[in-house]
Amino acid sequence: MRKLLWLLNGVVLGFIAAHFVNQTPEGRRFFDRVGRGLEEFGRAFSNGYHEAEPNDADFEAALRDLTTKQ
C-alpha cells in the first residue's frame, strides 16, 4: 500500500510540474513537439495495422485451405 501511495504522489507531482512547464514558451514548444511526435507515431501505427490487415485475411484463407485438404 505504501508503494502505491508513492506512485500516486509521483504522478500528481509530475502533472503539477508539467503544468508549470507548459506555462513557459519553451515548455509549450516542448509539449507541442511531443504532441506532434505522438500523433506521428499514432498515424504510423494505424497505417501499419491497416496495411497488415489484408495479409491476415490471406493467412486465414491459407489456413482454411490447409485444414480442408486434410
Structure, explained:
The chain is mainly alpha-helical and 70 residues long. 94% of the residues lie in helices and 0% in strands. The protein has helices at residues 2-22, 25-69. The longest helix has 45 residues, at 25-69. It is elongated, with a radius of gyration of 23 Å. The chain starts with a helix and ends with a helix. The model has no long low-confidence stretch (mean pLDDT 90).
Strand coverage percent: under 5%
What quaternary form is this?
Answer: single chain
Structural class: mainly alpha
Classify the helix fraction into a percent range.
Answer: over 70%
Number of helices, counting only DSSP H or I runs of 4 residues or more: 2
> Tell me, what's the shape?
elongated
Task: Give a topology summary.
Elements: H1 2-22, H2 25-69
Helix pairs in contact: 1-2
